[in-house]
């Protein structure tokens, strides 16, 4: 016999009470872990452990919950447990409502102390100074390529990468009126203006495009002037009380941005192997024929896959370059260590930016 709505809801209420008791039991255990870590002086945030918890539960999941539901639910549970151990302060390019904030919450869950910063430089500075324990910075966009400022700052920073996450970036045109009429200027971060240029050329060809420090700042400014529009997320529309005058105006429907999570090595040393890991490094090679080819040889020899290879000018005026390389694997695997050692021997400059679990 099928159950009535009242009966089903009563059953859900009973399950929720069991969940609440189980979650509080879990939180109490995390509190004990926190006491242990404080006594040992070891880091609270352990991304490889969190990745292993989520992978384990996804593998054990009988359904009907989907794998990504399991990941989202446990990310929030672990965020809350972690905050009980010690609240983690996370810096990102602000103000509230930016994609960087969204990336921070996607990675750490919502139980964090948010430290919005006025620029990417400031995120690095705040994290290096200890104002925040972690920083979240954009590194690459699927339409526009690398975020040059972040890559350049990696070169000299004492921070290292301990994680990554990527977001589907959907840009909307936000303004006080729900129409495209009488717009004098569109204000957004230069990356967003570039990612929407096809739409802007087609729909607002004669309107001024003004670069501002972040999309959320553009949205904030649009809320102060009816003739201005911003390009930003749905969240920014809610945050600043604006209409979405046009939805999803980015030229590439699958526009994604990848973010790196950075911290001082004393906050968190290189995470242990999670099974799906990545090593990021910056190298430069002597300016001679075949030098770039040579750096690929150790990778082939030791069977290590390269998932990323970017170049940035070394600013020496000599047409020299830094290469940003991502390798798959973890230094605990002998073939990865052997490839890194061989590579180091070939490079004029060699810096490991971090070893971390692969993100979503
Ligand atoms: O296992 C730990 O080290 C914990 O602190 C517990 C826990 C969790 O809630 O499962 C919380 C924070 C860490 O980042 C990893 C996992």
Automatic annotation (TrEMBL):
It catalyses: chorismate = prephenate; prephenate + H(+) = 3-phenylpyruvate + CO2 + H2O. The record marks 257 as: Essential for prephenate dehydratase activity. Residues 1-89 form the Chorismate mutase domain. Its EC number is 4.2.1.51, 5.4.99.5. The keyword Amino-acid biosynthesis applies. GO terms for biological process: chorismate metabolic process; L-phenylalanine biosynthetic process. Residues 280-357 form the ACT domain. Pathway: Metabolic intermediate biosynthesis; prephenate biosynthesis; prephenate from chorismate: step 1/1; Amino-acid biosynthesis; L-phenylalanine biosynthesis; phenylpyruvate from prephenate: step 1/1. Keywords: Amino-acid biosynthesis, Aromatic amino acid biosynthesis, Cytoplasm, Isomerase, Lyase, Multifunctional enzyme, Phenylalanine biosynthesis. GO terms for molecular function: chorismate mutase activity; prephenate dehydratase activity. GO terms for cellular component: cytoplasm. Residues 89-264 form the Prephenate dehydratase domain. InterPro entries: ACT-like_dom_sf, ACT_dom, Chor_mutase/pphenate_deHydtase, Chorismate_II_sf, CM_dom_sf, CM_II_prokaryot, G/b/e-P-prot_chorismate_mutase, Preph_deHydtase. It is found in: Cytoplasm. Catalyzes the Claisen rearrangement of chorismate to prephenate and the decarboxylation/dehydration of prephenate to phenylpyruvate. This is Bifunctional chorismate mutase/prephenate dehydratase. It comes from Caenimonas sedimenti.
């Amino acid at each position: 016999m099928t159950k009535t709505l009242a009966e089903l809801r009563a059953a859900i209420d009973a399950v929720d009470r069991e969940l609440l008791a189980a979650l509080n039991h879990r939180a109490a255990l995390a509190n004990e872990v926190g006491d242990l870590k404080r006594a040992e002086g070891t880091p609270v945030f352990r991304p490889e452990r969190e990745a292993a918890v989520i992978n384990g539960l996804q593998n054990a999941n009988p359904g009907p919950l989907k794998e990504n539901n399991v990941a989202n639910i446990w990310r929030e549970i672990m965020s809350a447990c972690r905050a009980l151990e010690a609240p983690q302060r996370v810096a990102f390019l602000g103000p509230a409502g930016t994609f960087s904030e969204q990336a921070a919450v996607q990675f750490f869950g919502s139980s964090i102390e948010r430290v919005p910063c006025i620029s990417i430089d400031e995120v690095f500075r705040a994290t290096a100074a200890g104002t925040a324990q972690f920083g979240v910075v954009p590194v690459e966009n699927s339409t526009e390529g690398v975020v040059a400022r972040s890559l350049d700052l990696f070169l000299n920073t004492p921070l290292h990468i301990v994680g990554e996450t990527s977001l589907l970036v959907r840009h909307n045109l936000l303004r006080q009126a729900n129409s495209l009429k009488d717009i004098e200027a569109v204000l957004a971060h230069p990356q967003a203006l570039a990612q929407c240029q096809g739409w802007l050329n087609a729909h607002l060809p004669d309107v001024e495009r003004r670069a501002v420090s972040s999309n959320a700042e553009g949205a904030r400014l649009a809320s102060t002037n009816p003739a201005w529009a911003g390009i930003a997320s749905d969240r920014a529309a809610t945050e600043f009380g604006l209409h979405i005058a046009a939805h999803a105006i980015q030229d590439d429907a699958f526009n994604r941005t990848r973010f790196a999570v950075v911290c001082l090595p004393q906050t968190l040393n290189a995470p242990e192997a999670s099974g799906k890991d990545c090593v990021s490094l910056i190298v430069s090679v002597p300016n001679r024929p075949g030098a770039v080819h040579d750096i690929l040889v150790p990778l082939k020899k030791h069977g290590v896959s390269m998932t990323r290879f970017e170049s940035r000018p070394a600013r020496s005026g000599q047409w020299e370059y830094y290469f940003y390389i991502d390798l798959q694997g973890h230094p605990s695997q002998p073939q990865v260590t052997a490839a890194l050692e061989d590579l180091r021997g070939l490079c004029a400059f060699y810096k490991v930016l971090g070893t971390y679990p692969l993100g979503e």
